[in-house]
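Please check this chain.
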Amino acid sequence: MTRWPAHDSKTMPWKSSGRPPREDREFTEVVVSLPPLIAGSWFDPGRETIVALEEAAVAIASLDVTAGTRMAAISGFLLRSEAVSSSKIEHVNANRDDYARAMIGLKASDGARSMVAAADAVQGMIDDAGRTGEIRLEAMLAAHHTLMKDDPMDGPHAGRFREVQNWIGGSDHSPRGAIHVPPPPELVPDLMEDLLVFCNRRDVPIMAQAAIAHAHFESIHPFTDGNGWIGRALIGAISRRRGLTRNTVTPIASAMVADVDTYFSLVNNYRSGDADPFVLYLARSAVRASDAARESVAALDELPAIWLELARPRRGSADEKIIPWLLERPVFEAHSAAHIAGVAESSVYAALQRLTNAGVITPVTQSKRSRAWAATEVLDEVDRLNNRLADVGKAG
């Protein structure tokens, strides 16, 4: 098995700014990581990894087909699952109702809005890869802008590469004790150009390409913030570009969040030239995520019949017309429900109250002016998916 090229390093002078603690003022040199150029590098997987890559490709493609006639609903669910889990890896959380309000643009917490922005960013990158057949820098920068534009600290840097030295872990004031110090900012454009060439090759197994691209992206850490989200979106974008998925997003971040320590450890080890273990990990994560997601698809598929049994709507009524639509639009306001039901907005409230009384939907707002409802069973399935993957991780 050919070893993947390892990162180099370089010692550079460091001077802390502002008024840092004494330990940071005394920190005068930093060892920065220098990722290799990989555009033409050949990855030679081990025997176990070859098998896992084949199994992952089959599992991902099978999940894509499983969505079937409820494609829009299932695609939306899987996208939300990926965005929520990717956010949890970054320690960004929100409760269900808060996230529901953010989904339709109502007042919500910063965490909830970040999770919605993450879903939009992931979708944008993946759609662009499917439409153009390329992983494009323009799409990546646009996704980062979508993700970070409303961030109070990093909003001014949204959609462009960093111009400062960053680091992971350690002190807040300097790279003292950092787990990883990415390359200096002046090297980022050339390193990213090289990575994009690698991402657009067709002679690397798809999930191996996605795993290496993700780990290498995290090593470069090209943005001031949001690197984890965009790096994980890159996995889905490569799958779409290569035709492994056509409609859905494999919720691999849901498998990662079940054991973030292993995930971070293998990404860190990648820098020593140890690519095969992370490729193997990502392939197995894809299989676990796909299997768990198929259970969610089956559960979601049963919901309309369950809702009809609970509500027992009159044939042709607004209630009956709204129920099948809830999978695709699990969070909504009255005007949207009225449009689907084909009735005036003033007339739809009675139907929404009946569905609420039956336990089909739940109000997620208190305000009389900005009222919204959610089919909470659809939203809660994201947590059930994550719990299944966590249980699988413990069993493994």
